[in-house]
Amino acid sequence: MANPSLSSERAVAAPKARSLAEITLLTQAERFKGRPKLCSDCGICGGELRPLMAASCVFVQNRHEQIELRLHGRNRNDGDELLFGITRAIHIARLRKINYEAQWSGIVTRLGALLLERGLVDGVVATKAAPGTRWAPLPFLARTPEEVLASAGNTPCLSPTLEILDEVRASGLKRIAFIGMGCQVHALRALEEELGLEKLYVIGLPCTDNTSYPDLMRFLGVASKSPATVVHHEFMQDFRVWMRHEDGHLEKMNYVDLDVSALGGERGIFPAACLSCFDYQNGLSDITIGYLGAPLPPEQRWQWMLVRTERGQELFELIKPLLELGERSEAGNRRVGVRTYVGMLRRPRKRPSAPVRKFVAWMQRNKGPKGFEFARSVIEMKLMRNLVFVRDQFAKQEQRIVPRYVYRALAYTADVYQEEFGRPLEP
Ligand SMILES: Cc1cc2nc3c(=O)[nH]c(=O)nc-3n(C[C@H](O)[C@H](O)[C@H](O)COP(=O)(O)OP(=O)(O)OC[C@H]3O[C@@H](n4cnc5c(N)ncnc54)[C@H](O)[C@@H]3O)c2cc1C
Ligand code: SF4
Ligand code: SF4
C-alpha cells in the first residue's frame, strides 16, 4: 500500500508541463526557471514528490553525514574515506566479456540486468539516450534485462532521474534498483523510508561537472575537430579527453589545451549546483562503479568498484563471477599540486602559450599522480574549487550545504588557504 503521506501529496503535485524527453534538451536557463538557484534537476521537483523537496534536496540541506550514520553507524574515518566515502572494500575490475558499447567495460548495466534475471528486483531505474540524440539523457524504468543492457554508455548531462519514482509508485513495484548520481542518491536516501519499498539497491556513478545537453554540445564543439561524429568521450586519467569517432579514430585533447574561456569559463558551462556539489564519489550508494582510480591504459577498460554497504557487498558477489579482478596502483604525490591549485583559484592565470601548455601536459602525463593518487588529487581539487565557489556565490548557505568531511579532507591545505584568501579554511 502506498505511504499515506505520499498519497495525499500526490493530489497537490503540479501537472507535468513537458515530457522527460523534452526536458532533457533544454538549456540551463529554461530548465532552472522557477527553481531555487541551486538545483541539479535531480527529478524530485518535476513530479509528484515535489512537496518533499525541502526534506530531500541536497542543496536545501546536505544530510550526507546524517544518512551515513543511518547506513553505516558512523561517519568517515580520516584518510581515503574523506575523499572516497565509507567503503568496506575497493576493487579494480572489468567484465571478462567486455561490452564495447558500454562506457567502460559495462559492469553497471550487466549488474542491473543480473538483478532482473535473478528475480531480485522487478525494475531498474536507468538512463538511456533520448530519441534522436546521442547524448541527451532520458531516464526510464527498465523491466527486462535487455532494456537495462540497451542503456549502456553515458549520456553525460543532467538527468531528472528521480522523476521515474512516480512511475515506480504508480506501477506498485516494491523491489527496485536505482542507477544514478550523488545528488539523486542523496534525495533518494532522504526519502527512502517514506517510499514504502521492500528492497532498494543503489548503484552509484561518480559524477562531477555535469551540465545541460546544449552546453555539452558547446563543449564538444570546442574540444573536437568533428563534434558531430564523436560517439564516445571521457575525461581520462592521463590528463586528456579521449574522443572516439564514428569511423573508429581516436582524438585526444590535453586538459590544459581545452579553451575553457570559449565556453564562458567553468561558471559559464557548469550549473551552480554542480559547482556546489561535494559528493564526487556518490558516497551514499550501496556500491559506486566508476573509473577514476583505475589503472590505464583506457583501452583495457579497468574500472573501480567501491563497495559501501552490506547490500553493496551482495551486489559485488552477484557480479563477481563475471569479473576479472585487477591490481590497485598508485604513484606520485598530489599534495604539492593541490596546494598550488589553491593559489590558482585565488589568482586565476591566463591561458599559457602553446609551448608552455605542451610542457605542462607532458609533465602531467609523465610526472603527475597516477592510480589512486590521481583520484585523490582530482577529488581534492573539486572539493576546494567548489568550497571557494560556495563562499563566493552562496556564502550564507555554506553551513547547510558543505558537509564537515570537506574541511577535514582539505585540512592539509589550511595554511595556504589562509595565506591566499585571508580567512581560515574551517568556518
Ligand atoms: C555525467 C556523468 C559523469 C561521470 N563522471 C565520472 C567521473 O568523473 N569519474 C568516474 O570515475 N566516473 C564517472 N562517471 C561514470 C563512468 O563514466 C561510467 O558511467 C561508469 O564507470 C560505469 O561504466 P560502465 O561501463 O560499467 O557503465 P555502462 O554499463 O555503460 O552503464 C552506464 C550506466 O550509466 C547510466 N547513465 C548514463 N547516463 C546517465 C546520466 N546522465 N545520469 C544518470 N545515469 C546515467 C545508465 O543508466 C547506464 O546504466 C560519470 C558518468 C556520468 C553519466
Ligand atoms: S536538485 Fe532536485 S530536489 Fe533540489 S531543487 Fe532541484 S529538482 Fe528539486
Ligand atoms: S556534479 Fe553533483 S550536483 Fe551535479 S549532477 Fe553530478 S552529482 Fe549532481
Labels describing this entry:
427 residues, alpha+beta, 2 domains, eight-stranded mixed sheet, three-stranded antiparallel sheet, 19 helices, 37% helix, globular, disordered N terminus, binds flavin-adenine dinucleotide, binds iron/sulfur cluster
Category from helices, strands and their pairing:
alpha+beta
Helicity, in percent? 25-40%
Placed side by side, the strands forming the largest sheet appear as 3-2-4-5-9-10-1-11
The strand count comes to 13
Note the total helix count.
19
Main sheet record: 8 strands, mixed
Kindly report the average pLDDT value.
93
Principal-axes geometry comes out as globular
How far apart are the termini?
46 Å
Strand content: 15-25%
Which stretches are low in confidence, meaning pLDDT under 50 for 5 or more residues running?
1-5, 7-15
Bound small-molecule species? flavin-adenine dinucleotide, iron/sulfur cluster
Number of domains: 2
Mind telling me the C-alpha Rg? 21 Å
Brief account:
With 427 residues, the chain is of the alpha+beta class. It folds into two domains: 4-212 and 273-326, no CATH class; 331-427, no CATH class. The protein is built from 19 helices and 13 strands.
Question: Could you characterize the architecture of this molecule?
Answer:
By secondary structure, the chain is α+β, with helices and mostly antiparallel strands. It folds into 2 domains: 4-212 and 273-326, no CATH class; 331-427, no CATH class. The protein has helices at 4-12, 20-23, 28-31, 53-56, 64-72, 81-84, 107-117, 145-149, 164-171, 182-191, 213-223, 266-269, 310-319, 335-346, 354-367, 372-393, 398-401, 404-409, 414-421, and strands at residues 89-95, 123-129, 137-142, 175-180, 199-204, 230-235, 240-245, 250-254, 287-290, 303-307, 323-326, 330-331, 370-371. Residues 1-5 and 7-15 have low confidence and may be disordered. One iron/sulfur cluster binds at residues 35-36, 39-42, 44-45, 53, 56-57, 59, 183, 187.
